[in-house]
Amino acid sequence: MSASCVAEQLATLRRQGYVVVRQFAPAAVVTALRDEAERQLASQAGPIEYEADLQYPGAPPSRQAPGGATARRLLGAFGRGPQFKAWATSPAVAAWLRAYFGETPVLSTVHHNCVMTKHPAYGSLTGWHQDIRYWSFSQPELVSVWLALGPETAENGGLYFIPGSHTASYSAEQFDEKKFFRDELPENRRWIQQAVCPELAPGDVVFFHCRTLHAARQNGTDRVKFSLVHTYHPQSCLPLPGSRSASAPGVPLGDE
Description:
9-stranded antiparallel sheet, Jelly Rolls, globular, 2-oxoglutarate-dependent dioxygenase activity, alpha+beta, dioxygenase
């Protein structure tokens, strides 16, 4: 990837709060990650967060209800096998983030660090939110790296983003008690009307800022959607002592 191409991508992320980089991950890497994710989902290899645990719209009411064993995400992706570790710390990811941050990027093992699995029927809707809402760092300067392990569209629950939302100031009243952006408010609707759902092919990556408002619908197809997401911060941006963000050490990404 040329320096001018990367510079344009970085500028897009800074301007609109997200950028799609096509075919960022090699096909062989995507296949290996997807195969392993499918194997671990089939065997219910923990730790797993279930749809019933979060109770988002469309989720089963309990673990005992029909669909109660539907996984929302396979947690702890970095420790789920060498292929996951290799992707999260890959030279391509490290170089791109180093160019963005201007310093060493650090992988958070606390936030995201998971395989997202959106199932038909029992996969829930995710409301508008900023990822920074539950994170505690010295600066709100984190970037998530979302890798599509299969096709992603609005129909199967692909991510929607609101361009420019990462630089806006919002009042506390614009969010509900769970810190979701309230879609019934006229001032919020004006933002939501600008939302974009980029279609992704396997191997495409979305880099998005921790303050960018995003959401996802339910999966209206008959196939599970798999995505792999990790979050990174610059080395100078520290998790606050005593917070959940500081509950496990990060992984600095070296030059190699």
